[in-house]
Amino acid sequence: MAARDPHRFINELDDAALERLVARLESRAQDEAFARLLDKYLTHLAIPPAARVLEVGCGTGAVLRSLARRGDFNGQAVGVDQCRTFVETASRFAQAEHVDDRLTFKVGDAHHLDFPTASFDVVIAHTLISHVTAPLAVLSEMARVVRPGGSVVIFDGDYASLTYAFADHDFGNRMDAALANATFNNPRVMRDLPRLLPELGLRLVAGWGDAVVEIGRGSYFKSFAETYVPYVKRAGGLPEHSVEIWLDAQRQAIANGTFFAACNYYTYLARRV
Known about the structure:
By secondary structure, this protein is of the alpha/beta class. Helices cover 42% and strands 26% of the residues. It has a domain at 10-158 and 185-211 and 264-272: Vaccinia Virus protein VP39 (Rossmann fold). The protein contains 9 helices and 7 strands; from the N terminus they run ααβαβαββαβααβααβ. A 7-stranded mixed beta sheet has the order 3-2-1-4-5-7-6, sandwiched between helices. Helix 4 links the parallel strand 2 (76-81) and strand 3 (103-107).
């Protein structure tokens, strides 16, 4: 069976798989490194206090909840996701944090956004573009719904750089690639954006990279492996027994303080011309 990005085909997953992805997204949002990277680009954006913000592929709403908690934001934000479970969960979490007066979550398709042209000041895609069926179509829709002079933010990983330490380097490389291909429809798409953005009427204002690295301890990459290894097994490209040996080795490395894993993440800030 070919690898199938679970986020791309999320509406085909059962309730147990959806619960695992909800837990994964919330765990990632609480990770110190990811919280820092989100805060970095939100601060750089300097979003006007009364701005109207759209997040495409909002998942459980963690990014917009973080925005709503900032003391310098008093605007309105809308999150769109194709998964009804995510949208309902995002609404529930926003209500629990008492930020639901500024946040709205809707079911929708990132490839065909149901909003008028030029209706937002800021449009965000936070770890979305690596999963979608047609990245150019999604970027085109983001460019359409942001107002002239408004900002588009794309944050995502270059998952071809994803790597875990493993004593058998050959199998380790194969496992890194299997994880990237089983989890992301577009693992290298961030390399294409400097070329694609101008074609859509978006001027690149700033871009930077950050390495997310865990050495000795593991939390973000532990959760990543445990969440997505089942999809590697389902794809069938590697012997299931060998995959289990690899996963057990990662857990043991965390337990004895010898763990290593890393991945590069990139942020692009663009402005609608």
